[in-house]
Specification:
By secondary structure, the chain is of the alpha/beta class. The chain has a single domain, classed as Rossmann fold (3-Layer(aba) Sandwich), CATH 3.40.50. Helix content is 48%, strand content 17%. The protein is globular.
């Protein structure tokens, strides 16, 4: 998913040359996110810099570093730590004026610029169904591994305006939701 998020952020910010990726270095999702980011950066011909945050106190400095380094935008890697700090991440992005792409539509609904990923409610619903199957006697080893199959692109035009970004008509036309 990280290559797609990078592609969308570069489309939102034409001429982007340097994109940052915020990861939680203590997470098992960190390495796959970095690899995906590097793959996407090579494909788009942009530089990728890695920023780390694994505790609350590291989030704002990461955004400050992103802004001061001249990065054109930031991708927040999918991670439960970041999911539980939604308001803090959105506030830091606004404070430092960093165009940011998030991993769940709920981020854009809450004021984030752009997001691409599965709705949390859909993921939780599937978790509940799986838990119910286990509670009804099915063996976990017999259940298939399931992943989301629907990903949503949400663009917050109000946030884009605040950052001085004009969202292209093409991006608006492919978005699942546009927040005015």
């Amino acid at each position: 998913m990280t290559p797609k998020r990078l592609e969308l952020l570069c489309e939102l910010i034409p001429g982007a040359k340097n994109i940052a990726l915020l990861i939680n270095p203590k997470s098992p999702t960190a390495e796959p996110s970095i690899q995906g980011g590097q793959q996407g950066a090579r494909a788009r011909g942009v530089q990728l810099s890695i920023l780390n945050a694994s505790i609350d106190a590291e989030i704002d400095p990461a955004f400050a570093q992103c802004a001061s380094s001249g990065a054109d935008g930031l991708i927040v890697a999918a991670d439960p730590f970041f999911d539980t700090r939604r308001k803090q991440l959105i506030a830091a992005a606004a404070r430092h004026k960093v165009p940011t792409n998030y991993f769940e539509p709920e981020f854009s609904t809450a004021g984030g610029l752009i997001s691409y990923g599965a709705r949390l409610s859909t993921v939780y619903r599937q978790m509940g169904i799986t838990a119910g199957r286990i509670l009804n006697g099915e063996r976990p080893a017999d259940l298939p591994v399931e992943q989301p199959t629907r990903f949503e692109l949400v663009v917050n035009v109000k946030t884009a305006r605040a950052l001085g970004i004009v969202v292209s008509p093409r991006l608006l036309s492919v978005a699942d939701e546009v927040i005015e």
